[in-house]
Structures are given as C-alpha cells and as structure tokens.
Amino acid sequence: MEEATQPGTAQDWAEGYRWLTRIASLCQDWILEKEDPQHPTIFVSQGESRKLIVDNPDVTYWFASLDPRSGYRLFGQRGEAPYVGLTLGTDIFRGARGGRSGTLVQTNLDRFPHAPDGSFELYLAPDRSQVPEDAPWLQLPPEATQLAVRETCTRRDLQAPAQLHIERLGAVPPRRADPEVVAEKLRTMSRFLLFVVNTCVLMWRGALANTNRLEGAPGRRHVEAQEDETRTHSDADMVYMGGRWKLGQDECLEITIHPPAEPFTYWGLVLVNPWMESYDSRSARTHLSNGTAERSADGSWRLLVAPGDPGTANWLDTGGRLEGFMLLRWVLAREVPSPTCRLRKLTRRRAAENASVAR
Prior knowledge:
This protein is α+β, with helices and mostly antiparallel strands and 359 residues long. The chain folds into two domains: 10-168, Immunoglobulin-like, CATH 2.60.40; 207-358, Sandwich (Jelly Rolls), CATH 2.60.120. Helices cover 18% and strands 29% of the residues. It has helices at residues 10-33, 179-206, 348-358; strands at residues 43-44, 59-65, 72-77, 83-89, 103-108, 119-125, 137-139, 146-152, 163-168, 215-216, 238-246, 251-257, 266-272, 287-289, 301-306, 315-317, 323-331, 340-345. Strands 1-2-8-4-5 form a five-stranded antiparallel sheet, with no helix packed on it. Helix 1 (10-33) packs antiparallel against helix 2. It is globular and about 70 Å long. The two termini are 26 Å apart.
C-alpha cells in the first residue's frame, strides 16, 4: 500500500490505513461469520464505517450467501427507495471455478408482486418444485452462490428503508464449526483482502487518463466484459462513468449532467478518496443525485466540485483536498448522455477562503 500512487496528504494516508482495517472487518463478516448458506442471513454489508470499491452513500448494500441446490424465501418490506436491485452472482471471494463468472441474473423487486403495505415474499430456488404453487419465483442458476441487493434512494432522509429477511426452505442442519472449513475461510479472507487492495490501487492509477472528465460506456451495460472480476459482479441495471479530478487552489470543477431523452430512475455522483472509499457524508455534502441536486432552467444539473464553498447550489465538498476520484451512476437509464466537465476559476475571495480551509 505504501507504494501506491496517491496525492500524499496526511488525510489520505490516514484514511488508507483505516481503510485496511475496515476491509478486514468486512471480510470477517462476509466470509467467516455470515457465509453459511445452510443458515442464511441477509445483512447490510457496508455503511459509513465500512466501504468497498467506490460505494454510494445513497445505497444500502444487502448481501446473502446461497447454495444453488437449495431453496430460499426472501421476504419483508419493500420500503420507499425507487430502486431495489437483485443481483445473483458467482463466488466473488474465490473467483470463477469454470463456467460463467460474475453477475448471472439481474432483476429488481418491482418485477414481482408486493402488497399495498409494501410487504412481499419471493422464492429463490433451482426449480419450481421447491416453491409453493403460484408463489413469485426467481430461478437460481447452478453457479449462483451470492445474492446482492442494492437499495438505491434519491432522498434517503425521506424514503422509508427496506426490511429484508431470508430463510432456507426445508430441514435446517445443526450449526457446527468444522476445522477445515474455518481454515479455508481464513485463507479466503486473506486472499480477498489482497484482491480488494490491489483492485482499488489499480483503479486509482488507471483513472489518471480520465482527469477532470467522466468517461464510461454510454448506452451500454456496465457488465459486458468478463475479464474484470469486480466489474462482472456489478448491477447490470446500472451504467457507471468515472474519473479523477484535480484542482488548483483557485479552481473548481463544473460538471453538467444532461438529462437522457428517455425516463430513468436515478443518477448519483459521489466523491471518492484514492482508496475508492466515498468521503464521509455525515459532516459534508460529498454526493448528489437527481433527488437532491437543484435543476437548471434547461433541465440539466450543474454541480461544482470545490475545496471550499463556491457560494452556489450543488456544491460537492472536497474537504479542502485538491485531488480525488469521482463516480457517476445511472439506474434504469438507456441512452445516457456524457456529462460536460470544465475547470473554472473561483473568485479571489473564495479562493482565499479555501486556501485557509486547506491549511
């Protein structure tokens, strides 16, 4: 990690060492404690103190481990988020074991019935014989070992959260700690920790060519290539555009997001440190979406990335930092227009104030 190319500020280094402990904690939860498809649990895997590979503060990330030979009942309350994506995927911790890799099935909760009060149940099983007659059913592919749920809000402060539960169908075997199983999980934890660290360092380095611009694949699904294990476990209902930003002390980056020609569910832009963690959104505005940004008269959204308050709407606060990463997500959008990015000079007064903040 110490050889990683990054801005080198004291804050970035401190966040980097803290990030290692957070990823270790996440690995413990994911692999050692809660990777038991015979006694499944669906849990919130990320939050303000545990973030993974360009997280989004607008999203609640749920996760459960599955056995593709078994049947499961997913149930609870849908909540009020405009999008609750369901992703069935292969084993991201151990990599592909032949056959398909990554995201296998992508859907969302609104494609299945739920009651007027938001309650629902959905069965996951390899075949219909394990599911009650006429019950909503999602088929488990033979390689599916994981369920990821991305509950995406436009106004987290106003939208009621989902309540999700999962149970295995049929007889449940007793819980046991097997020495060989635990040893394998500990080895897997260490390998996955190194995989995450290497992935994030390479993402930061690889984004250098996209400085002060947001590049992606407009109109294409994010999960089209199978080479990148991280990308292939993404939500295929989303399109991603990323890049680095780099400012002078008297500069800000203006990003204009243009509305698509067809309806969409969500866009969100988040500022990220060199370790691919979103900035702390509890004390500053570090992300904006179509639900929180003010819209211009022409229908676009004009955002300003700046180290201090530029005195206008839609300010994304870098906390005095002059270099970082950013990611724009679109959900259920088809032809996505490329954002317009340009550096702008701040007024002398604002630049002086920002220099004082940076010190």
